[in-house]
Model the fold of this input.
Amino acid sequence: MTRPVSPHRRTNVVDRALSYPDLPLVAIDLASVESYLLVRPLSYLAVERDGALWCPLPSKPASLDLDTDAARIHAHRLRLPFVRPERHPAPVLGAMRIAALAAARSRAAIFTVRATRLAWSTGADLDHLELGAGLADADADDDPEGYLRLMAEEIGLSVTDAKLAACEGSEWDRELHAIADGLAELGICATPALRWRGKLHTGLTSISAVLAESEGNLPR
Done:
């Protein structure tokens, strides 16, 4: 039996997640190395513009978050760059609040792909970047701060809106909590998680198996 959802928590993302059990759903944490390893193929499998839900969910560190050598080996097998952010596995709640805003605009997948790539290919701390300060002509490849500004603009955010969204106590802080409550009702309490064809998969191994089964239908 599911517990009732109070009216102030019935956001659009939560409503859709609870009301449509067959809708593909991805739950990620920008501070999770497993989310980074999976996010690109998941964006091809669970396509947000086709209705899939992408939900930010702060989680406790998984085993790969605590074992840097193992995480590096996994990344190299997937031909992904790997630079461990200095504060990892500390949460990046400011960036997660921006991800909640992106989810409300159905732009969470692209934000997650870009943000995790920024964090794990440069070692950037997503919660300690100044969005756009003096970066009118920033080169995203050379300047992580400029890259984050470009990501914000890509999901339709001004620098000011992004800064406000990232604040504790903001509307998007409340949204992040609301999403966590809704996902808990679905049995999702940790990331990465995937609801695919009505079945829930959690963690790198389980989700990788789903991706392997669908490999023929995914871009290389």
Remarks:
- The chain is about 50% helix and 5% strand.
- Residues 12-127+157-217 form a domain with the Glutaredoxin fold (CATH 3.40.30.10).
- The two ends are 41 Å apart (CA to CA).
- The longest strand covers residues 25-28.
